[in-house]
What we know:
Helices cover about 70% and strands about 0% of the residues. By secondary structure, the protein is mainly α.
Amino acid sequence: MTSHWRPLDRFDQGWIGELHTYARGHRAWTAAVQTFSDIGGTVTMRTLLGIAAVWLWLIGARVLAGWVAAQTLVGWGALWALKLAFDRQRPAFTDRVSHAGGPAFPSGHAMASAITCAVLVGLLWYRVHRRGRTTACAVAAATVLTIGWTRVALGVHWPTDVLAGWLAAGIVLGAVTAVIELWRPGALARDVRRVNWRTRPRVQRVIVPSVRPPATAAEPLGDDAFDEAAFDEAALRAADLDAADLDEAALDAAADRPDETVR
Length: 263
């Protein structure tokens, strides 16, 4: 595939040749790279997205759960459609340090990790403050870059396979999001507010009754005192109302305002 464009061919050959030479002479380093590549494989990434989709479904964010599931399924379908369409051979070495099957283009590890990290960052975006967002983006970017680099370092993908995997992941993310927004305008934003409401910290309010001096013998208890005691008891009972009922009412009211800015 790269033979038709020599600059791209030189780019691929140069990178993978140097990394393969280093990997052959450093077996411990190669084993560590292989371990990280296996941990960040397609099965791990799709499992994380599956868990996120099930959790969102259980808390009532059905459209957001469908968005996560669609990213997983469409990404998997697009990956194999591209692999079968291009049918690019993997790098060939007589002394391989790692093995992988199937066509090379694009890299499944690179594509799956990019989709998964982008989705997880999107789910966390409105749950954390600026420092948390910066940390999440840095961790996600480092994970995606490292997993893509391990595939080249192990000699099972050309560098352009990894770059194509990242590009395909961006297209899948944008396409799935656009389709859902056209199908259910504002539904993703409403589900984001629903998740924020359901997972926010709960604060229990306690009403402390006023302290009154005890009645003396010269001041016998009258009917007014009993009425005030009964009123205090009723107020305490009202304070024990389940906060979840109030939460549901407020959530339904927020869901009816799709144009409200998500905070």
